[in-house]
Design goal:
The protein is of the alpha/beta class. It contains 9 helices and 15 strands. α5 crosses α6 and α6 packs parallel to α7 (about 125-135).
Length: about 260
């Protein structure tokens, strides 16, 4: 298969899938990872696709970057310094002895690992976070029940049952943020947010500044429901003004390296 044939094949795959990893492409196309990475560089440089960590993503029809929900294991290792700084800032808001809800997603995962040994009770549907807290944490852990959805890595049961509870804070992440609110592409994440939002006194959003340029299709939570939002110092003046106009208290996490 020539370089052009191989690259056309990759573009065809992206017409059906928003993201494909280097590992999957090497198995599908039958060449080395180094060759695939060169193909990705060429396709990205030609404006035919978007190079992302661990693989390649499709573009929208308008040529902008598509809001791609990367697999958790890849997304966890993107913008780590910003996410850890956000996690530290969020940890300052947690009160000892409180019950908190922690959403799925990589930024919330970093937050959860940061407060793993705090004197709190944490409720989460995130399997990666629950596994980490079970092995490495000392905080009390309450895990949601239901079926395991490996992507986005949450346990979910449509008819929420079990003992009712009420939390001080709900720490939530999102694939994108706009004037309309928190944006998501996975319907289960939207449903989980809606299930949890009425069970907490404060809704605290944890998103790195890249998320303000993403435009997933579904509004999971309008901004007027948000108590405060924590992001890194890459937040643009335009987006900061938008949040201020909608009454969202914004905290900037320092210490990003």
């Amino acid at each position: 298969m020539s370089d052009q044939q191989r690259q056309r094949t990759i573009v065809q795959i992206l017409e059906e899938r928003p993201f494909v990893s280097v590992k999957d492409l090497t198995a599908t196309v039958g060449v080395s990872a180094a060759t695939i990475r060169r193909d990705i560089e060429k396709l990205s440089g030609a404006g035919l696709a978007q190079k992302v960590h661990g693989g390649i993503a499709a573009l929208t029809n308008g040529g902008g970057r598509a809001p791609v929900a990367l697999p958790f294991i890849l997304n966890r290792d993107i913008a780590v310094a910003a996410k850890q700084a956000i996690a530290r800032r969020a940890g300052e808001l947690v009160r000892d002895g409180s019950l908190i809800i922690i959403h799925g997603g990589s930024t919330c995962f970093h937050f959860g690992t940061h407060i793993a040994n705090r004197n709190v009770r944490a409720f989460t549907n995130s399997m990666p976070l629950a596994a980490y807290l079970a092995e490495h944490g000392t905080c009390q852990l309450k895990v949601g029940g239901g079926d395991l959805h490996r992507e986005p890595g949450i346990l979910y049961e449509a008819a929420r049952g079990g003992e009712p509870f009420y939390a001080s804070q709900f720490f939530v992440s999102a694939l994108g943020v706009s004037a309309e609110g928190l944006l998501e592409s996975h319907p289960l994440l939207v449903r989980f947010i809606n299930d949890m939002v009425d069970l907490a006194n404060e809704i605290i959003v944890l998103v790195d500044s890249r998320k303000f340029s993403e435009r997933p299709p579904t509004v999971a939570l309008p901004l007027h429901r948000v108590t405060r939002l924590i992001t890194d110092d890459g937040l643009s003046d335009k987006d900061a003004k938008m949040l201020e106009e909608r009454g969202v208290d914004v905290l900037i996490a320092k210490g990003v390296v």
